[in-house]
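ARCHIVE CARD
Drawer: 12
Card no.: 0347
Subject: one protein chain, sequence and derived structure
Cross-reference: see card 0346
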Amino acid sequence: MSNEESWVFYYKKQQTIPNIDRMPIHHLSCPQEKKRVIRVSNKNKSREGDREEKENERRVSGFHRNRLDSDQLDLELRVSDTDSEKEDGHEDESSKISQQVYVNACKHLHVAPGKKILRSLSSTQMSAKERIVNTKEVETIAYALTTNNSVTSLDLSGNNIGHKGLLDVLRMLDENTSITYLNISHNKLGSKAVIILRDLISSTKKILTLEAAGNDFNDKDAEQIADGIRQTNTLRSLNLSQNAFQERGGEDIAGALEENMSLKELNLSWNHLRLDGAIAVGAALSTNSTLQALYLAWNGFSNCGCQEIGTALQTNSTLELLDLSNNRVGLEGAKWLAKGLMLNSKLRHLMVNMNSLTTLGAKTILLAIRDNPESAIDTLELKEIPVLEEAIGIIDELKSCRNRFVVVHDVTVLSEDFLSCVDCPVRPQKQKAHKKSNKSKKKS
């Protein structure tokens, strides 16, 4: 649409349409009123009278056109008569309107309509995963979903929609009242779209699950995302995995978790959380009272992060699932986790796969679960961690007492491994001998 043209809307009755200045396609949310919304330009005002006469003739003859002519440039939204409604009574009226809006939008933006998208407008799930080529296609989907009340799940992952495409999605969510699941993962949104993501997290009242993995968010972006987490009261699940949050990013998100009262599931896997960032996230579990599942796999929590997590588990009464796989956790970290498990009565699923716990660390965790009669753990994952035959006896004992108890492991050894001695402090005698040898070298 050129800047010289100003679009005017005409109705049978005067009424306002929300966000009229930013939405190029509008519609009536109540098709039962049988009103027509026709969009024409100032240049075509002289043809308006002829058009209305033709439409009146068609109404009298009972003929209604369902498709747009190839030479028609303006977008028209027509409401079907009761006869067609009786024939397709099983379809939702909002789905029909959204399909027509989608076709009109594709025609106006010169985009080829997608059959799969057109069909999904009448179902509960819409998937455009790795299908979108440019932002215009996102725009057409956004226009169609403003009128739709049947789609509850929208998947836009694997597309380079950019910050402009995400802005169209945000505007659509201001109008849509049915979508509760949104997946915008792997779209390379980056820092340009982080403010839009913050508004999406904080302002949307219907979204319960938001997937935003693999979008190149960094430490600077974490501050904006944390503000959105603080403000939201409806979001239940948030996936921020496969980004680039480090120490500062971990501290910002941890501060938001201490204030948030709605999140039940948070995925921070495949980031760079370590040192102060890992410590802050672990300490946040002591004050957070809503989180039920926390995924922290493939970070760098190490022993210092596990110390805070173990301390938090002693008082936390909501967390049920904890994933610490591949976090450089050693024997000392396993001992801190065991201290938390001795007093915890809520955690059900613990994953510590691919860590250097050693045989002694795995045994320490199993003993903590056995010695805690109120422990609720029914699944313990120890993949690629050596387990002693003595620990196998503890596992059999736990299975005899708890019918649902499962331990996932794949390595059984006969003796303790060498790594069990790595975390032990160095003997002072060896240090003295080493110093004497240095002095003798200096004298020589």
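Annotation on reverse: The chain has a mean pLDDT of 80. The first strand starts at residue 7 and ends at 10.
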